[in-house]
Structures are given as structure tokens and as C-alpha cells.
């Protein structure tokens, strides 16, 4: 898979710009708020979204990610999450700029401890990371609406921002 | 590998998750999580109709929303939405598989009363206005299902109701 079809830089830049606009509006004083008892807390959802561009960077640099080494969730100030997000975006973009077709076709694995949970060509994995990010960002838009934060546009007009 | 060949596995995977979510839409079309939110019926119908929009991206050079050629689907039942989704997805998949390589770089425009809302390559239009867009609204729909105590399907990872795989 060519880099141009996995995640074109133009697409990456647009998606990261709209993601940042949402993250900027996360009210960190409501970090523990959740819409339903089975739901993820707002602060943790925002932290996950801030981490996810880093998965793209790591996937492009390393042959695998080991979940056993990942850090747990915490409640952080929005400013901290934005710095983390910006660093991750910068690293992912640099890695996307440098990646070659061969590296994208190479097999990449998700592991927990020594166990391989999932393997696929790296190009497919980074694509799934982006779609996964869009998924959690979509959830975040509903969370922000429910805590009365005006919503910026992502793909189209919102009740607060029209065409 | 052609561009279409790289897009098909992603399309198939996302289609499975979207279908699973639509199957579970409860008969509460007027439910709104917030006064400013889209009602459940409208959101679910929008998700079900996006493959039809994706097909237009592959089949035409542009669409003007204000011309009325793209009519919003109205919610009747989960079964009706799944049927519309299946028909749209089958048509889109066929067009996707048959897409000539150079057609992806061709220009595509979305207009509203003549004003461009999107102006770029067909590839970018497909990704942003169909694929990424459906993932976005499907995720919102997942939260709506959760708020109605409907079990949320696992998509990219486990949900509180369904383990991975």
C-alpha cells in the first residue's frame, strides 16, 4: 500500500486540525463526567484521542506495540493533553513523510506480553489507527454536546457552526 | 496493488461494523441526547444513506446539495435502514472495485447553492465525505445506543458489552 493511499498527508493534516479544535474545547473540570454508567469518562476519552496519533508514529517506527507496556489512563489538564497531542501529531507526520512502500507492506503486530493479538501489513494498521481515532473523536463530539460545549465543524455544519 | 484494491478491505471491514450498529437502532426516532442534537432517527438514517452518497462521489464529477437530487432518507425502522444501507453498500462496492486508477485523482466538488463546500480529488472526497464521515456518525450513533441501554457492538476494540474478536 502506497503512503498516498494509506494516509495521504493532506488527509492527515485535515483530520488532525479538526481533532485539535475539539480537544481544545474539552472542559477538564468535567473529566470524570460520563454520559452513562457503562461509558468511558470524558477525561479518559480525550486522553485516548490525544494518544492515538502516537500509535501511527510508533507503528511506522517499530515492528510491534506491546500493550503490556502501555500506561494507564489518568485525568489531565486539557493544556497537557494538547501538548501531548501536538507532539504525537508531529512525530506521526514526520514518520508518514519518510515511510516507503516496502515498510508499509511489512507485517506489523499488536502484542500483549509475548502473545500476538493481531498481525497485518503496516499500511492497513496505520489506516485503522486513523479510523479508530475518528471513531473516538466522534464519540467525543456527543460528550461535548452533552456538557454544553459549542461544537466546531468536523465534516459538515453543526448546530453551532453553519455552512 | 491498485488504489481500489487497497480500499476494498477497509470498505468491507467498516461496512460490517456499520451494519451491526444499524441493526440495533431502537424504535425511538425522536430520542435526542441534548436539545441541540440530531434526533436518533435522523442520525441513523444519515448513516444508512452515506453509501449512496459515496456512490455519487465515484459516479459523478460533482453534487450540488441545493438541487434536491440527494433526498434525505426518512427513518421507518431498523430493518428499513439496514435494507437501504445494504443496497447502497453493494452498489458502492461494485463501483469501487471497477474504478479506473486515474479516476481517483480527478476533481470532485460538493456545492451548496453554487458555493463549494468541498473541492479536491475524488480520492479525498471518498475518504473524507464517505469513509471517515460514516465512521464519525456511526460512533455518535454508538453513544446514542448506549444512552438507550442498547448493547454497543465492538468496532475497533472491545465495548463494555462485547469482548474483542
Report on this structure:
The complex is a heterodimer of chains A (163) and B (165). With 163 residues, chain A is mainly alpha-helical. Chain A contains six helices and three strands, in the order αααβααββα. In chain A, strands 1-2-3 form a three-stranded mixed β-sheet. In chain A, a hairpin with a 2-residue loop joins strand 2 (107-112) and strand 3. In chain A, helix 2 (9-23) runs parallel beside helix 6 (122-146), helix 3 (42-61) runs parallel beside helix 4 (78-98) and helix 3 (42-61) packs antiparallel against helix 6 (122-146). Chain A starts with a helix and ends in a 17-residue tail after the last helix. Chain B has a three-stranded mixed β-sheet with strand order 1-2-3. Chain B is mainly α and 165 residues long. In chain B, helix 3 (78-97) links the parallel strand 1 (62-64) and strand 2. Chain B has four helices and three strands. The chains are: A mainly alpha (163), B mainly alpha (165). At the A-B interface, helix 2 and helix 6 of A face helix 1, strand 3 and helix 4 of B.
Put the structure in a nutshell.
The complex is a heterodimer of chains A (163) and B (165). In chain A, 55% of the residues lie in helices and 10% in strands. Chain A is mostly helical.
From the structure above, extract its key features.
heterodimer, A: 163 residues, mainly alpha, 3-stranded mixed beta sheet, 6 helices, 3 strands, globular, B: 165 residues
Rg of chain A (C-alpha, Å): 16 Å
| Parts with pLDDT < 50 across at least 5 consecutive residues of chain B | none
The termini of chain B sit apart by 28 Å
Number of helices of chain B: 4
List the helices and strands and how they pair.
The complex is a heterodimer of chains A (163) and B (165).
Chain A: H1 3-6, H2 9-23, H3 42-61, E1 64-66, H4 78-98, H5 101-105, E2 107-112, E3 115-121, H6 122-146
Parallel strand pairs in A: 1-2
Antiparallel strand pairs in A: 2-3
Helix pairs in contact in A: 2-4, 2-6, 3-4, 3-6
Chain B: H1 3-23, H2 40-59, E1 62-64, H3 78-97, E2 107-112, E3 115-121, H4 122-147
Parallel strand pairs in B: 1-2
Antiparallel strand pairs in B: 2-3
Helix pairs in contact in B: 1-3, 1-4, 2-3, 2-4
